[in-house]
Amino acid sequence: MFHPSDIVKVAAAVITRPDGSFLLARRPAGKPYAGYWEFPGGKVKPDESLLHALRRELLEELGIHVEHAYPWITRTFTYPHAAVCLHFYRVVQWHGEPYPQENQELSWQFANNVAVEPMLPANAPVLRALDLPPVYAITNAMELGIKLSLTRIEHALQAGLRLVQVREKGMMKEALHVFAGEVVKLAHRYGAKVLINEDIRLCREVGADGVHFPSSQLMNLTELPGIDLCGASCHNAEELFQAERLGMSFVVLAPVLPTLSHPESKTLGWQKFATLVRECSLPVYALGGLRQEDLTTAWEHGGHGIAMMRAIV
């Protein structure tokens, strides 16, 4: 067991091109885990900021100057020889063409079709998080009506939406079963994934891709069901910790801003949101009063993306 003071702090970069591909580097001979693929980056020096370390390492390793990077997830991993705390940043703008400065191999890859192996153990789980899209839509058929809701969902899917949660608390069981089935059919036609709020059985019956757990249900879970994609709603540090402990695929943190449905509810605001997600190992979607134009703000504050209900299109 390593003492906390012995944990090596690392700044790691997910260097992403507009087509969604990201850069991996193969560790050269002479280094631990030589031949393994990883995200570029390196150790943070004493009294050095994470962002400064990221910029320095990428200049040394790849010869590029980072122009724009967003904080993302943080993962701690214990190897036989060391414990590391990896602070991942998504690098979206840089100057120069990445070139191996330290005899490493480089390869551009896609999260859903990584063609190089083996991956460094600490980095492998990050690929699953990278495959999550930036926008998470939540249905609102009880307010809009089923027909209009399905029309809006299809328009959003045509525009690129790839992750949907069916959440209809007031809908009768039979109607919900039919509606959820229609959403799954639509989504799968466009290569999108669907999560069902709370109901594991309904998820399996309609062929959905996962389940989204409300915070009350999250706090009573002892383990995840045998379902590929599991999300959860969180509102505070305790709930985030529980989601991490269980190994959720992602979480939604809310409310960030005032909402139409709960205008008087106490909001987190962006600074509190950033504080809560700073050391989180899971991708976090910001929720509450947000629109598409808030996506960059969410990225700047450490979010994976945004979740929306009324602004679904």
UniProtKB/TrEMBL annotation:
Residues 5-134 form the Nudix hydrolase domain. Gene3D superfamilies: Aldolase class I (3.20.20.70), Nucleoside Triphosphate Pyrophosphohydrolase (3.90.79.10). Its cofactor is Mg(2+). Its EC number is 3.6.1.55. It is an enzyme of class 3 (hydrolase). It holds the Pfam family TMP-TENI. Keywords: DNA damage, DNA repair, DNA replication, Hydrolase, Magnesium, Metal-binding, Mutator protein. SUPFAM superfamilies: Nudix, Thiamin phosphate synthase. Belongs to the Nudix hydrolase family. This is 8-oxo-dGTP diphosphatase. It comes from Nitrosospira multiformis.
